[in-house]
Amino acid sequence: MANLQQQSTVDRLDRPSAYFDAKQRQRNYHHRGDDELEAPTEDPLAHATTLYVGNLSFYTTEEQVYELFSKCGEIKRLIMGLDRFNKTPCGFCFVEYYTHEDALDCMKYIGGTKLDERIIRTDLDPGFKEGRQYGRGKSGGQVRDEYRDDFDEGRGGLGRALQLERERAQERERERERERRAQQERNGGGRGGGDRYDRRDNREQHNGGVRDSAAVDDYHDTR
């Protein structure tokens, strides 16, 4: 029993972020087979001072983020994530501290807590680079908000891609309904005029080509 190592149930605060893991898998995929990738690369998060903060409400302000995150240390820089097209907040930001320890304290005490009634998540980040403040989704926001199938008021409602598709489907249905109505009006007008003349011709033929005065009167009454 003495040789058994006690396993910690607490995750490391300085574990690689989801962003770093995704970038590493992407590099390995594009350079698979290269000898240099066999050697482990140095973890760029070992001394990281920047945090990626996700799951923010679109309505959370920069001042709110600054007030909360400054409780763990002096903030060097705060960059709000923006919609690429509208330049409005789209649910994430970067918080840069002066020291690695302050960043870890922030993950320990703030990560997983609520801000604007939303549970925010924090990840160590290799460092902000120009351009990363904009959403990478097709509609300008974050990719995770493109295909969300639930309605989230704090994240812009329904997933944007699904919302756009539903709006297009509704517009197509409205257009088809307009075409059906126009077709019915055209067909209804043609049948009405044709019926009057058909009744007149049938009565004339029934009387051996001699006009029935009553049929003529009916025809004029319907005009």
UniProtKB/TrEMBL annotation:
Q: Where in the cell is it found?
A: Nucleus
Region entry Disordered: which residue ranges? 126-223
Ranges of compositional bias, category Basic and acidic residues = 163-184, 193-206
Q: Which CDD domains match?
A: RRM_NCBP2 (cd12240)
Where does the RRM domain lie?
49-127
Pfam families for the chain: RRM_1
State where it is primarily located.
nucleus
Q: PROSITE patterns in the record, alphabetically? A: RRM
InterPro entries assigned to the protein according to its UniProt record, in alphabetical order: NCBP2, NCBP2_RRM, Nucleotide-bd_a/b_plait_sf, RBD_domain_sf, RRM_dom
**Leader peptide range in chain numbering:** none
**Top-rank taxon:** Eukaryota
Q: Which UniProt keywords apply?
A: mRNA processing, mRNA splicing, Nucleus, RNA-binding
Which family does the record claim for this protein?
Belongs to the RRM NCBP2 family.
User: Which named protein is this?
Assistant: Nuclear cap-binding protein subunit 2
Species for this entry = Sporothrix epigloea
